[in-house]
């Protein structure tokens, strides 16, 4: 999916709520096969409040790549829903 598609999708989702809260725990970062890549795995708990309420917890993985001195997310995947 394109960067614009993901940005619009997240903006749409977040616009449905007045309050968004995330807790990130159990972070593990593993260097990738190339010096400019890495993987981050972590537990992410969320709570969204507004007209509706949503909360939950997942184990997530981010693929990262260093571009022009900045680490950027190149992929995202939920591994396990708790």
Largest sheet: 4 strands, antiparallel
Sketch the topology as an H/E string, one letter per element: HEEEE
Oligomeric organization of the protein chains = single chain
Strand arrangement within the widest β-sheet reads 1-2-3-4
- Residues in β-strands, percent: over 45%
Helix % is 10-25%
Q: Over all CA atoms, what is the radius of gyration?
A: 15 Å
Report the total helices: 1
Distance between the termini: 26 Å
Helix/strand/pairing category = alpha+beta
Described by the principal axes of the CA atoms, the overall outline is globular
| Average pLDDT number | 93
Unreliable runs, pLDDT <50, ≥5 residues?
none
Number of strands: 4
Protein architecture, described:
A hairpin with a 2-residue loop joins β3 (53-67) and β4. The protein starts with a helix and ends with a strand. Strands 1-2-3-4 form a four-stranded antiparallel beta sheet. The longest helix has 13 residues, at 3-15. It is an alpha+beta fold and 82 residues long. The protein has one helix and four strands, in the order αββββ. It has one helix at residues 3-15, and strands at 17-31, 37-50, 53-67, 70-81. The relative contact order is 0.19.
Please describe the topology of this protein:
Elements: H1 3-15, E1 17-31, E2 37-50, E3 53-67, E4 70-81
Antiparallel strand pairs: 1-2, 2-3, 3-4
Highlighted features:
82 residues; alpha+beta; four-stranded antiparallel sheet; 16% helix; 68% strand; globular
Quick recap of the structure?
With 82 residues, this protein is an alpha+beta fold. The chain contains one helix and four strands, in the order H-E-E-E-E.
